[in-house]
């Protein structure tokens, strides 16, 4: 276990260095933040003064080294657009994005796994075929289209739910949540469904395919020969072995949801990190963009580490090795 953690932590450090270098190299040439801050009417003296204040007069290597030094201690500088510390901006938006992602993940697992098991055990049933057709639609339809259809039905026509915003939130220290207020829960419903549709469809099809493979293996036939009930055979033996790929995919998808919730947040004007990065790209706000990419990279490597540890807990063959 210690050897595994040491290896993974080394990989985390190397990946974060590569991500930092790539983000710095790419975003450093996207635009001139001095022009965006001062506008076209600023004098050359004002531009040069601001360039020196932001450290843009230094060489690219020096700028990158200073960026890494500050990033190690959680200091990503000051936003060019908001004139606030980048860490404060991210911490203010992070709860909204994580709340949306976690709710979508819970719905995806709670719905996708039972649907996958059912469609595998009764592949020719009417409900099973309907679920398979629905999963094909869920994978094929883009998220912005799903979001707009939900807004059209539940906000414009029925007027049951709010079409934008997060509703009322409760602040618990630095964390804010809408799950403790009625308007917050209502505001969370449509973005969560929009974000979860693809995940539910993918997990359902993955579990179905794995279950169809596992139920034909010898150990399942042996379990039947021992006289075990269908419930014990399918839910205890077959499902447990079918969930190993689901653990990997779910971990990767959580990282993807954090990184690519931008579309859903833009459709519903959700005040999360997606909206923050969109505004940063429009304004060439390099500190915010670099911090966002570093956070996404750190999220992926951390989730992969957690997935590896879960694999050790679930699969005895890995522990034996």
With helices defined by DSSP (H or I, 4 residues minimum), what is the helix count?
14
Sheet of most strands: 2 strands, antiparallel
Distance between the termini: 11 Å
Beta-strand percentage? under 5%
Name the poorly predicted regions: none
Give the quaternary arrangement of the chains. Answer: single chain
Shape: globular
Structural class: mainly alpha
Tally of strands:
2
Helicity, as a percent range: over 70%
Strand sequence of the main sheet, in spatial order? 1-2
Compressed to H and E, one letter per element, the order equals: HHHHHHHEEHHHHHHH
Q: What would you report as the Rg, rounded to the nearest angstrom?
A: 24 Å
Mean pLDDT: 82
Pfam family, one: BPD_transp_1
Family: Belongs to the binding-protein-dependent transport system permease family.
Subcellular location: Cell membrane
Membrane topology: Multi-pass membrane protein
């Amino acid at each position: 276990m210690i050897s595994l953690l040491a290896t993974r932590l080394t990989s985390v450090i190397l990946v974060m260095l590569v991500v930092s270098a790539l983000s710095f190299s790419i975003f450093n040439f996207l635009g001139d933040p001095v022009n965006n801050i001062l506008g076209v009417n600023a004098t050359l003296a004002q531009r040069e003064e601001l360039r020196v204040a932001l450290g843009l007069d230094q060489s690219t290597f020096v700028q990158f080294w200073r960026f890494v030094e500050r990033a190690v201690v959680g200091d990503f500088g000051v936003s060019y657009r908001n004139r606030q510390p980048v860490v404060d901006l991210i911490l203010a938006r992070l709860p909204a994005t994580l709340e949306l992602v976690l709710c979508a993940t819970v719905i995806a697992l709670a719905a996708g796994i039972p649907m996958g098991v059912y469609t595998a055990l009764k592949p020719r049933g009417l409900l099973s075929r309907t679920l398979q057709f629905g999963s094909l639609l869920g994978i094929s339809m883009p998220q912005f289209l799903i979001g707009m259809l939900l807004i059209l039905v539940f906000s414009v026509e029925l007027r049951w739910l709010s079409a934008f915003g997060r509703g009322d939130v409760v602040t618990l220290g630095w964390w804010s949540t809408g799950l403790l207020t009625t308007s917050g829960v209502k505001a969370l419903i449509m973005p969560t469904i929009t974000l979860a549709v693809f995940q539910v469809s993918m997990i359902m099809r993955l579990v179905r395919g794995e279950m169809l493979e596992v139920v034909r293996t010898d150990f399942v036939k042996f379990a039947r020969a021992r006289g075990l009930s269908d419930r014990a055979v399918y839910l205890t033996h077959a499902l447990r072995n079918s969930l190993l790929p689901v653990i990997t995919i779910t971990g990767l998808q959580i990282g993807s949801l954090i990184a690519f919730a931008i579309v859903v947040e833009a459709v519903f004007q959700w005040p999360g990190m997606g909206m923050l990065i969109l505004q940063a790209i429009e304004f060439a706000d390099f500190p915010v963009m670099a911090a966002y990419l570093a956070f996404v990279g750190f999220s992926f490597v951390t989730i992969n580490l957690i997935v590896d540890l879960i694999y050790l807990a679930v699969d005895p063959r890995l522990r034996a090795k």
